[in-house]
Amino acid sequence: MRAETFLPEDYIPAEDEPFMNERQLEYFRRKLLNWKAELLNESKHTIEGLQDSTRNIPDIADRASEETDRALELRTRDRQRKLVAKIDAALRRIDEGEYGYCDETGEPISLKRLDARPIATLSLEAQERHERRERVHRDD
After folding, report:
1. In the chain, what percentage of residues exceed pLDDT 90?
2. Average pLDDT rounded to a whole number, residues 58-70
3. pLDDT average, residue stretch 52-70
4. In angstroms, what CA-CA distances link 86 with 5, 52, 53?
5. Other Cβ atoms closer than 10 A to 118
6. Which of helix, strand or coil describes residue 103?
7. What is the pTM of this model?
8. Domain residue limits, the chain
């Protein structure tokens, strides 16, 4: 069990402090846990909504519209499920001391990027290289 790190409510990771110190790790841990809780809560409401909407609708147009809405909800829920898995992986990286470092180069990922996308595993430069390679191969 880890000791609780004190974190002022207005704390924001800064470039002039040691990279991935206890406060930064705790900041990102809380950010990830809050995001996960939010997604799971939305997912719970989606399931309840889908269960409530399973009713027989006689009008074909209304039924088609309802089915389209259901399909969209299920796709959204699937994306959220994948996002929760990525959040769990990021939390594991925090616990293992690997969080915040690029999988490709081993260099620190910028705090700005991590704040915007706390599940990032690549630095901005590595991500751009990765996307360029994908575009080249997609065009083949």
Report:
1. 60
2. 80
3. 75
4. 24, 29, 30
5. 22
6. coil
7. 0.80
8. 22-138
Q: What is the DSSP letter of 119?
A: T
64: left (phi over 0), alpha (psi -120 to 50) or beta: alpha
Looking at domain 22-138, its CATH superfamily turns out to be: DksA, coiled-coil domain (1.20.120.910)
Type of residue at 47: I
Put residue 53 in one of left, alpha, beta given phi > 0 → left and psi -120 to 50 → alpha: alpha
Reported as a pLDDT band with limits 50, 70 and 90, residue 74 is confident
The set of residues, in sequence order, having a beta carbon less than 8 Å from that of 77 and lying 6+ positions away, is 43, 46, 47
pLDDT single digits (tens) 4-45 = 778 888 999 999 999 999 999 999 999 999 999 999 988 877
Radius of gyration of the chain (CA): 20
Token digits for 27?
């900041």
DSSP 21-48: -HHHHHHHHHHHHHHHHHHHHHHHHHHH
